[in-house]
Every structure is written in structure tokens, then in C-alpha cells.
Design a protein that fits this description.
The protein has 15 helices and 19 strands. By secondary structure, it is α+β, with helices and mostly antiparallel strands. The structure holds flavin-adenine dinucleotide (FAD). Flavin-adenine dinucleotide binds next to helix 2, strand 2 and helix 9.
């Protein structure tokens, strides 16, 4: 389909340009196609490799998406959206080797037995690139959708009269007319510079530090079955008092291990080396069995990333002066700490909510912009606030441990009591897990009085497996690094 065809087609009078073919842009294209739009996706990166997903996922190089080669999991919210809105994509992911993980396997001992709602407590074990590739292939197969690689969207053209979006301009200077422009450009949120370029004031963002440097390595299982339990349902490991070590099962017998510290933690710089990484992973509760001889082999180097801060973009909220026809989507609207693994699920949910809104409001005007901003706020604000608050507390705790001070006394918070009770009480576990997996909001969880009554009556939780102390971990990593150096 050419651009000219897009603007003159008989099949629909609506065209959308989507900037960015990440999870959000692809989900947006799928959702807009579903309501009759003709869609042109402009992706500045190169086309993904051809061939079987299992192989192509490992060789897809995307410099503009640094998180793409890091540990990912799709939480229950994302699975729910796919099941309800794009079941063929979920089926294709499963056919390509992804696995649905039954989170109820992590119920407290003796609390088994199915309950209504448990069918939603699943996550998708799949490398990020594998899921994205499946989604990409589903999108490019759609009639009326074109994905064009190379040109970046560089500017917006607004109607001088009513301020509506009329077209985008690529960085090569091509003008492409559109009724609707979706900013799915990821965490840098390019719409902010498009708006400035068009003379529109940009609303301020809300930003909170995420305080996280991550190190990921991928592995393939070589033995039979799962080497160890998934104590977190979709993951093994935990967030400890000075670092995090978490393992996520992926597609096709792969798994990833992610270790995380505070940015600038020079004493653990050796996590970047395979030997240092392996030493720390082996010392982390829940991970050692997966790395035992004969259980697995590494299939990637260690990748490092500093996570972007938690950010709720002003452009996605009702603080932004409406620009009819422009809609931020996914990370371009809100970024939350990857420790919670919510970004892809929120992007999927956001895409279909936006399409529902566009279907219900055929006129692309300021009222639609305000409705979209309210929708984005209702979806993202609870998670932005939860991530930013949890990170503030964790950063202070980790910093104190790393500096050798005693950690700030943990305030006896409702969430700490919930987390403890969830380790012995199945009902509390379900409530907490539904929130962690994005099926309910933190407010809904904390406002559930019946659940709090159960929390008060819950048996004391058994002691958790101990992670290595800070100085032990530093010594282990340093020794492993030195042994190879
Ligand atoms: C370390 C890490 C681990 C994570 N783990 C998880 C997890 O376990 N589960 C989870 O759900 N989420 C996770 N996330 C979050 C998740 O990766 C993001 O939420 C998700 O990538 C957002 O998708 P997106 O499409 O909005 O942005 P992106 O994936 O960043 O895609 C943006 C796309 O836009 C393109 N682009 C940029 N500018 C332009 C332009 N001007 N014109 C055209 N194209 C452009 C880019 O090339 C890119 O392809 C993690 C994030 C990090 C950093």
C-alpha cells in the first residue's frame, strides 16, 4: 500500500500513522485495524530477521530498543488483553514456543485447589524479542496495514485553524497525511519534540527515580524438566535487601536471569563479566539449580542497562493542552520500573482502550483528546504512583545496606503485612498476586477490608531463604572476575 492509496482509499476514510513498531506501536496498529483504520507504521529501525521465531528472536539487533535484549515476562494483564482482544497472537506465540505459566503453582503450601478467577492467574514465558516478532508478523499480515522501516517521524503538521493533526513529516522530509498520529516511540516520547516544533507548549512530566542497573543473561535448558520451583509464579528469585536476582522462563526452553543493583554500584561492576555474573547468580536463592552442571548452557553474553526513571508523560495526561488527533501510547505515555514487569502489559491494554475510545468518538476533536487523557491517567497513574513509591523505599533500603549503615527501619506498612500474610494464606496470596500481575490496582487491593481481616489473622510466615550479605556478594563477584582476569 502506498501513502497515496492510504489517503484516498474507499474502504475507510480514516488513516492513522503510528510512529514506532515496538510492542505499543504494533498493538496500536492491530487495535486500530480492528476498528477500520488504515494504518501506516513508521519504524526508524531495521526490519526484523526472517526465519523461525526461535532463531530470529536471538539475532534481532535493535540499538534503539536497548531493553529488548533484557529479561522480560508478560504478566497476567497482558495475557488477559491478548486472550480477549488478539487470541490469534497468543496462539501464535504459544505455537512459536512460548509457555503459559500457571501462577497458582506458587500458592502457599497446603493452599492449593482451584478457585474462580484462577484461570486469569497466568503469565507468558517468552523472550521479549520472540513475543514482539510474533506480534510484528501478525500485524504485517493485516490488509490495510503497512510497516515501513527506515524513516523516523520527525515533525507534526497541525491545522492552523483548529490545531488538529493533519500530517507527519519524516526525517527525510516526506509529508504523510493522517487523521490520527500515534506516538509509540518508546521512553523518549518523541511527541514532546514534535509539539515544541509546532509551537505547542508541552505539559510537564511526573518523574521518580527507578534506581536500577540491570544485568541480563539468557540460557537454554539442557536437562529434563524445570530445575527448580518458580517461587514467584512466573519467576524464581527475589528482590533482596541490597540487590535483586530474578529468573524468568522464556520460549523454547530458554530462560533469562536478571541481576539488579543501584546505578553506579562500582563494587559490583564485575556483574558485567560472565564469571562475576555466574558467581552472583549461583549465590542467589532459587537460581543455583538452574545453573548446575548439565541443567543449562548460556546462549548470550551479559547485557547491561540502566533503567529509565518512572515517568508519567505530561503529554499523555489532562495537563496537556489538547492536540486533536495526537495520542501517546505505551512507554511514550508512561514508563514504570522494569522490576515490576508491567510495561508491555500496560502498552497492550492502552492500545485497545484507545481504539475503543476512537470507535466510540468518531469525531477527532479536543473532547476526544480529553477523554483519551482521562483514560491514560486511569490506566497508568496507579502504576506510576506505586512504582515511584516502592522505588523510593527500595532505593533508601539498598543504599543503606551498600553503605554499610543499618537499613532504615521498615515501617510496619499495610503492603509489608500483606506480603507476609500472602506467604501462608491463599486468599491473601491471590489478592496480592492479582495486583502484582496488573489485574487489580493497588487501591483496590489496599481497600479490600475482608482481605485485611485475613492478613491480621494469618499465620506467621516462615523465614525466607537468605541472600548473600553485601560484602559476601562483592567478594564473590570480585573473586570470580579475578579468577578469569
Ligand atoms: C530492563 C528492562 C526490562 C523490562 N522488563 C519488562 C518485563 O519483564 N515485562 C514488561 O511488560 N515490560 C518490561 N519492560 C518494559 C518494556 O520493555 C516496555 O514497556 C516496552 O518496551 C514498551 O514498548 P514501546 O513500544 O512503548 O516502546 P519500545 O519498545 O521502546 O519501542 C519504541 C519503538 O519506536 C521506534 N522509534 C523511536 N523513535 C521513533 C521515531 N521518531 N520514528 C519512528 N520510530 C521511532 C524505536 O525504534 C522502537 O522500535 C522492561 C524494560 C526494561 C528497561
Amino acid at each position: 500500500m502506498t501513502t497515496a492509496e492510504m489517503t484516498t482509499t474507499e474502504t475507510t476514510d480514516r488513516t492513522a500513522v503510528v510512529a514506532g513498531a515496538g510492542i505499543a506501536g504494533l498493538a496500536g496498529a492491530l487495535a486500530l485495524h480492528g476498528i477500520g483504520y488504515r494504518v501506516l507504521v513508521l519504524e526508524r529501525g531495521a526490519e526484523p530477521p526472517a526465519g523461525p521465531v526461535e532463531v530470529a528472536a536471538a539475532s534481532w539487533v535493535r540499538p534503539a530498543v536497548p531493553q529488548g535484549i533484557h529479561s522480560h515476562t508478560l504478566t497476567s494483564l497482558g495475557v488477559k488483553v491478548l486472550r480477549e482482544r488478539a487470541p490469534h497472537v497468543l496462539d501464535a506465540a504459544l505455537a512459536a514456543g512460548a509457555r503459559l505459566l500457571d501462577l497458582t503453582e506458587a500458592l502457599p503450601p497446603g493452599e492449593g485447589g482451584r478457585e474462580p478467577g484462577d484461570e486469569e492467574l497466568v503469565a507468558l514465558g517468552c523472550r521479549r524479542t520472540a513475543l514482539e516478532l510474533v506480534l510484528y508478523r501478525a500485524v504485517v499480515a493485516l490488509p490495510g496495514v503497512e510497516v515501513r522501516h527506515g524513516p523516523a517521524v520527525g515533525a507534526l503538521e497541525l491545522d492552523p485553524g483548529d490545531g488538529r493533526v493533519r500530517a507527519v513529516r519524516t526525517d527525510g522530509g516526506e509529508r504523510i497525511a493522517a487523521d490520527v498520529v500515534i506516538d509509540a516511540t518508546g521512553r523518549h516520547a518523541a511527541a514532546r519534540s514534535w509539539l515544541r516544533g509546532a509551537g505547542v507548549p508541552v505539559a510537564e512530566d511526573r518523574v521518580g527515580p527507578s534506581g536500577l542497573s540491570g544485568f541480563t543473561r539468557f540460557y537454554r535448558l539442557t536437562g529434563e524438566g524445570r530445575p527448580g520451583p518458580l517461587n514467584r509464579g512466573n519467576a524464581a528469585g527475589d528482590i533482596f535487601d541490597h540487590y535483586a536476582g530474578v529468573l524468568h522462563p522464556g520460549d523454547n526452553n530458554t530462560f533469562s536471569i536478571a541481576l539488579a543493583t543501584l546505578p553506579g554500584d562500582r563494587a559490583l561492576h564485575g556483574l558485567l563479566t560472565p564469571a562475576g555474573f555466574t558467581a552472583a547468580a549461583r549465590a542467589t536463592p532459587g537460581l543455583a539449580a538452574w545453573l548446575a552442571d548439565g541443567a543449562s548452557e548460556p546462549i548470550s553474553p551479559v547485557h547491561a542497562i540502566t533503567s529509565p526513571p518512572n515517568t508519567l508523560r505530561g503529554t499523555a495526561t489532562s495537563r496537556q493542552r489538547p492536540v486533536p488527533g495526537l495520542f501517546p501510547l505505551g512507554d511514550a505515555a508512561c514508563v514504570t520500573n522494569p522490576l515490576f514487569g508491567r510495561g508491555m502489559s500496560l502498552a497492550l491494554a492502552h492500545a485497545f482502550r484507545l481504539a475503543d475510545l476512537l470507535a466510540a468518538h468518531p469525531t477527532v476533536d479536543a473532547a476526544l483528546s480529553r477523554a483519551a487523557a482521562r483514560e491514560a491517567e486511569s490506566l497508568f497513574l496507579p502504576w506510576y504512583e506505586q512504582s515511584a513509591a516502592a522505588d523510593r523505599e527500595r532505593i533508601a533500603r539498598w543504599r543503606a545496606r551498600i553503605q554499610g549503615a543499618s537499613a532504615p527501619a521498615a515501617r510496619p506498612s499495610a503492603s509489608a503485612a500483606l506480603a507476609s500474610a500472602a506467604r501462608t494464606d491463599g486468599t491473601v496470596w491471590r489478592g496480592l498476586t492479582r495486583m502484582l500481575m496488573g489485574l487489580t490496582t493497588p487501591e483496590e487491593l489496599l481497600g479490600d477490608e475482608k482481605l485485611h481481616a485475613r492478613v491480621r489473622g494469618a499465620a506467621p510466615a516462615p523465614a525466607r531463604p537468605q541472600a548473600p550479605a553485601r560484602d559476601t556478594l562483592v567478594r564473590l563477584v570480585g573473586a570470580a572476575e579475578g579468577a578469569l582476569g
